[in-house]
């Protein structure tokens, strides 16, 4: 009998610590970590200059990545997706990766207040100058305006971290 891996994904505002938590789970669950930011940077270097660019390129990679992730899960490996699950639509796509192949999933909801997120963004911007263009209070406020709190009614296995 083949065991299917577990899919881990995240919800939380910009600066909540999703990437940091993804790296932790990669280690603790012996999982394959896939980062949307890394894929986009490798496939479309210097082509993402604003939020609309991000949305367009993100949409392009999802069909290929979905199949790739499902193949990894089917061989029994756990997968951690450092992709945003901050809207109902994003979470629906993430959940479909697991549900279509009857894999288990876990949504880690990092419920961190705005002030703490902004402090982390400022720190990250100072440590990673390449992020200076996007890691701003204005971007945080704009992106946060789309945030939808995850709900169990979406069919999600949610673990909330405050």
UniProtKB/TrEMBL annotation:
The keyword Cell cycle applies. It comes from the Bacteria. Gene3D superfamilies: P-loop containing nucleotide triphosphate hydrolases. Pfam families: AAA_33. Keywords: Cell cycle, Cell division. It comes from Staphylococcus succinus. The lineage of its organism: Bacteria, Bacillati, Bacillota, Bacilli, Bacillales. GO terms for biological process: cell division. This is Cell division protein ZipA.
């Amino acid at each position: 009998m083949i065991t299917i891996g577990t899919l881990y994904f995240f919800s939380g505002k910009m600066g909540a610590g999703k990437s940091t938590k993804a790296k932790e789970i990669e280690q603790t669950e012996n999982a394959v970590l896939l980062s949307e930011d890394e894929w986009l940077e490798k496939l479309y270097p210097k082509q993402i200059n604003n939020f609309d660019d991000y949305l367009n390129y993100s949409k392009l990679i999802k069909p290929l990545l979905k199949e790739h992730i499902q193949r990894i899960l089917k061989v029994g490996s756990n997968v951690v997706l450092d992709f945003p699950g901050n809207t109902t639509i994003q979470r629906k796509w993430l959940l479909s990766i697991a549900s279509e192949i009857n894999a288990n999933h876990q949504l880690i909801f990092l419920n961190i207040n705005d002030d703490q997120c902004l402090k982390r963004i400022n720190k990250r911007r100072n440590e990673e100058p390449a992020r200076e263009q996007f890691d701003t209070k204005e971007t945080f406020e704009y992106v946060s305006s789309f945030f939808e709190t995850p709900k169990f009614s979406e069919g999600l296995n949610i673990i909330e971290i405050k």
